Amino acid sequence: MTTVARNRRAHHKYAILETFDGGLALTGPEVKSVRAGELHLEDGFGRVDNGEIFLWNVHINPYRQGSLHVVQEPTRKRKVLLHKTEIRRVLGKLTTKGLTLVPLEIYFSKSGFAKVKLGLAKGKNAPDQREDLKRKDLGREMRRQFSGRHKL
């Protein structure tokens, strides 16, 4: 598994409750751009349309060496391939709890297929974000103190 892109801000903005891995339906030039790492996940989100899950606003730069005849929109919606039971479960949780579907990372599996890790997320408030930063700083400070004491 080789990770191509991570949405680092997702863990800061949202509390991730559950994750799903699914395939990503891409065209040939898009796959080459993704392999080159030319994509941005920060503004992306997932939406269920007609019983299928689509990724919206995931920006994949056009492939530079590609044909001029096949130019695709960088932020078009892309289909996520999940099992029907997983789609139903995601749909039920999105409608009842008011959660958001956020792309966490895009990677290539061992067999060479593009995959996306989606997270069911609930938005954090500013106090929650500050609390997480405080907790992270305290953990970092404790690691520094303990690493200095126990060195030989």
Could you describe the 3D structure shown?
With 152 residues, the protein is of the alpha+beta class. It has one domain: Beta Barrel (Small Protein B, Chain: A), CATH 2.40.280. The chain contains 4 helices and 9 strands. The chain has helices at residues 10-13, 28-35, 84-97, 126-149, and strands spanning 2-6, 14-24, 39-40, 45-49, 52-56, 59-60, 78-81, 100-108, 114-123. The strands form 2 sheets. Strands 1-8-9-2-7-5-4 form a 7-stranded antiparallel sheet. Strands 3-6 form a two-stranded antiparallel sheet. The longest helix is centred in the C-terminal third of the chain and has 24 residues, at 126-149. The chain is globular, with a radius of gyration of 19 Å. The mean pLDDT is 87.
Summarize the structure.
The chain is of the alpha+beta class. It is 33% helix and 35% strand. It has helices at residues 10-13, 28-35, 84-97, 126-149, and strands at residues 2-6, 14-24, 39-40, 45-49, 52-56, 59-60, 78-81, 100-108, 114-123.
Itemize the secondary structure elements and their pairings.
Blueprint: E1 2-6, H1 10-13, E2 14-24, H2 28-35, E3 39-40, E4 45-49, E5 52-56, E6 59-60, E7 78-81, H3 84-97, E8 100-108, E9 114-123, H4 126-149
Antiparallel strand pairs: 1-8, 2-7, 2-9, 3-6, 4-5, 5-7, 8-9
Spatial shape: globular
Level of helix content? Answer: 25-40%
CATH homologous superfamily designation = Small protein B
Number of strands: 9
Distance between the termini: 37 Å
What CATH architecture do you see? Beta Barrel
N to C succession of SSEs: EHEHEEEEEHEEH
Counted by DSSP, the helix tally is: 4
